[in-house]
Amino acid sequence: MYHVFLADDEPWALMTLQNLIDWSDYGFAVSGEAEDGEQALERIIRTNPDLIISDIRMPGMDGLSLLQTIRDRGLGAEVLLVSGYTDFEYARKALQYGCAGYLVKPVEEQELVEYLSKVKGILDGKNSGGGGKTFRRK
Hints:
Layout lengths: L1 E6 L3 H10 L7 E7 L2 H11 L3 E5 L7 H10 L5 E6 L4 H9 L4 E4 L4 H21 L9
Parallel strand pairs: 1-2, 1-3, 3-4, 4-5
Helix pairs in contact: 2-3
């Protein structure tokens, strides 16, 4: 089971993401959350999740800065960014920093499932390759 961390400054958005799907059906479990970027970074460093799903615009530290900091610190988590905006510049920067995907709010179940499938394939490949981070499985 891969561990997911959710970050969004809107409590309803966090609740929606948590309840949109049965995470375990796709090999994931939500193991943490935060309502701002700085809090998210602190908890991500402590819990070392396999996947981070973060809003782009949050107080303290935005999602792009969070992604860049995660990469600068060498954390191996995959990252999906979520935004209420379809601004190409956000998506371009997210891809530059190695983002696995960019979801537009409101997040649709089918789109989330497609990204989870993609990310699970990436994580499975990292895990079976023997290199890098060892991923936790239940």
